[in-house]
Structure formats: structure tokens, C-alpha cells
């Protein structure tokens, strides 16, 4: 049974580009498949090639921090676009820094940093609902 109806695209803007990678980060994938985000919040965008597995996320590349301009719901599987380029899909969330911010984990073939894919501050960030 499909539980999700249609939703708006959550959008924001990149406020800081990050340039580092880790092989031993020790993030823990939250069990929640979605998180609500509010206008004005800032969250960290992190790429990984790990799957859901046991929830342990070590191999990561940090893209940057994004300010939410249009709040809503971010779901596992949403497509993540920055500056018009697709950077991956939402794998889930790590809350080690919450309530300051979530780490929004983005699944892709290999982790990359914001610098590696030429991101820049003020680039548009979008979380677009995946097709059912």
C-alpha cells in the first residue's frame, strides 16, 4: 500500500560549501523515513555510498550547509538537486548534532565534497519527491 501522497518541493540555498571527506565518520542512520524541516533552518548535506544496512555510515563526503527557504517534508528517496545538478537521493538522516541541525545523508555511487562538484554559496537546493 502506498502511504505517500504528493507534496511540494522543499527548497533552499547553499550557505556554506564543505571540502572534506571521512572514512570513519560513525554516523547513525535514524530509523525515520522522513523529517519535517522549517523555513530558516540550516541543515548539513552529506554524501555517502553506504546503504541502509545496519545504519552505520562511515564513508562520507561533505557538500555543505543549506538554509531551508520553503519548508516541508523531506523523505527517504527524494532527489537532491543543487544548482540544477542532481547530486543523489536522500538516504536518511543522522541526528548527532540535533537540535542544531540534521545531517541529511545523500546516497550516490561515490561520496563527493562540495568542492569536488564545484558547488558555490547561494546555489539553489531542492528536495524533489521521487516518482511513486
Structure description:
With 132 residues, the chain is mainly β. 0% of the residues lie in helices and 48% in strands. It is globular and about 35 Å long.
Q: Please report which band the strand proportion falls in: under 5%, 5-15%, 15-25%, 25-35%, 35-45% or over 45%.
A: over 45%
Overall geometric form: globular
Chain-averaged pLDDT: 91
Q: Please tally the helical runs, counting DSSP H or I stretches of 4 or more residues.
A: 0
Query: What would you report as the Rg, rounded to the nearest angstrom?
Result: 13 Å
Report the major sheet.
7 strands, mixed, barrel
List the helices and strands and how they pair.
Layout: E1 10-17, E2 21-22, E3 27-28, E4 34-37, E5 42-48, E6 56-57, E7 60-70, E8 72-75, E9 79-82, E10 85-94, E11 103-107, E12 124-128
Parallel strand pairs: 5-11
Antiparallel strand pairs: 1-7, 1-12, 2-7, 3-6, 4-8, 5-7, 9-10, 9-12, 10-11
Task: Offer a concise description of the structure.
With 132 residues, the chain is mainly beta. The protein has strands at 10-17, 21-22, 27-28, 34-37, 42-48, 56-57, 60-70, 72-75, 79-82, 85-94, 103-107, 124-128.
Give a quick set of tags describing it.
single chain; about 130 residues; mainly beta; 7-stranded mixed barrel; two-stranded antiparallel sheet; about 0% helix
Amino acid at each position: 500500500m502506498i502511504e505517500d501522497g504528493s507534496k511540494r518541493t522543499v527548497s533552499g540555498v547553499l550557505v556554506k560549501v564543505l571540502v572534506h571527506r571521512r572514512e570513519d565518520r560513525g554516523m547513525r542512520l535514524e530509523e525515520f523515513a522522513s523529517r519535517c524541516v522549517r523555513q530558516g533552518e540550516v541543515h548539513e548535506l552529506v554524501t555517502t555510498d553506504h546503504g541502509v544496512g545496519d545504519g552505520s555510515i562511515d564513508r562520507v563526503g561533505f557538500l555543505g550547509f543549506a538554509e531551508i527557504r520553503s519548508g516541508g517534508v523531506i523523505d527517504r528517496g527524494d532527489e537532491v538537486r543543487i544548482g540544477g545538478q542532481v547530486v543523489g537521493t536522500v538516504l536518511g538522516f543522522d541526528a548527532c548534532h540535533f537540535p542544531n541541525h540534521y545531517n541529511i545523508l545523500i546516497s550516490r555511487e561515490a561520496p563527493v565534497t562540495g568542492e569536488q562538484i564545484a558547488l558555490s554559496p547561494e546555489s539553489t537546493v531542492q528536495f524533489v519527491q521521487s516518482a511513486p
